[in-house]
UniProtKB/TrEMBL annotation:
Alphabetical list of InterPro entries matching this protein: Solute-binding_3/MltF_N
Keyword Signal: yes
Ranges where the Solute-binding protein family 3/N-terminal domain occurs: 30-254
Alphabetical keyword list: Signal
Signal sequence range: 1-18
Family of the protein in this entry: Belongs to the bacterial solute-binding protein 3 family.
Protein name in UniProt: ArtI protein
SMART domains registered for this protein in UniProt: PBPb (SM00062)
Record Pfam families: SBP_bac_3
Protein's UniProt keywords contain Signal: yes
């Protein structure tokens, strides 16, 4: 059934690439990866042009499978789509959620994980912010990174809150700890990662997310050859346990 689906994808693609990104990457010897560098545990910039995280390790694995090196292109959640559309990146990686808006302009790899939105709060307040109804109050101070799916969730489901948009995703967690804000809505994986490393923060109902979402790698629209390669590499990394080993280093048994 999967082979039939892939065949239909090839036959139905409206864009015929004169040369696939697969060929281009192999000729140049470089895999160019867009990433934000501000979303642990997936991508974090430790120094200029130096990154770590689950998807950073996976990008290096993809490059190794191709026999090439990685060139990192830093982007932001707000500029991810326009940066990707410039055509400078072969793939975008770093905890990217699959949305219909993004699907309009790009291909996605096979699904990596299911990872819905949940609240991240101070543990002392965990009983106060269990539901959307409890959070969606004018007195509740919510902070989200500017751009991306967290901001869109807040705009759609939390119209009454006192919402602040931050250009610094990594700085949000200290602001929660310091009681400058009350709630951050984020993906389950990020909330669990921050909870694991900061005992004063609690991920609320991680097994019952407020919204369903999936994560995948973003690829150039219409390039079926490149997508098929990435999907097969991903399939093999799952079957060999490579991706689970990388994920466990950051999230434990999640």
């Amino acid at each position: 059934m999967k082979k039939i689906g892939l065949l239909l994808l090839v036959l139905s693609s409206s864009v015929v690439c004169a040369e696939s990104r697969l060929d281009t990457v192999l000729k140049k010897g470089i895999l160019t990866v867009c990433t934000t560098g501000d979303y642990k545990p997936y991508t974090y910039e430790t120094a200029k042009d130096q990154y770590e995280g689950i998807d950073i390790s996976m990008a290096e694995s993809l490059a190794k499978s191709l026999g090439v090196t990685v060139n990192w292109v830093k982007t932001t959640w707000k500029t991810l789509t326009p940066d990707f559309l410039k055509g400078e990146c072969d793939i975008a990686m770093g905890g990217i959620s699959v949305t219909l808006e993004r699907q309009k302009i790009a291909f996605f790899s096979d699904r990596l994980d299911v990872d819905g939105k949940i609240p991240l709060v101070r543990c002392e307040d965990k009983d106060k912010y269990q539901t959307i109804e409890q959070i969606n109050q004018p007195s509740v101070r919510v902070i989200e990174p500017k751009g991306g799916t967290n901001e869109r969730f807040a705009n759609a489901y939390l119209p009454k809150v006192n919402l602040t948009l931050s250009p610094d995703n990594m700085g949000i967690f200290k602001q929660l700890v310091d009681k400058q804000y009350d709630v951050m809505i984020t993906d389950t994986s990020e909330a669990l990662y921050q909870q694991k490393r900061n005992p004063t923060l609690c991920a609320i109902n991680p097994r019952q997310p407020m919204q369903y979402s999936e994560k995948a790698y973003m690829l150039p629209k219409g390039d079926v050859t490149w997508k098929l390669y990435v999907d097969q590499w991903l399939h093999l990394s799952n079957q060999t346990g490579e991706r689970q080993k990388v994920t466990s280093q950051w999230l434990g048994d999640y």
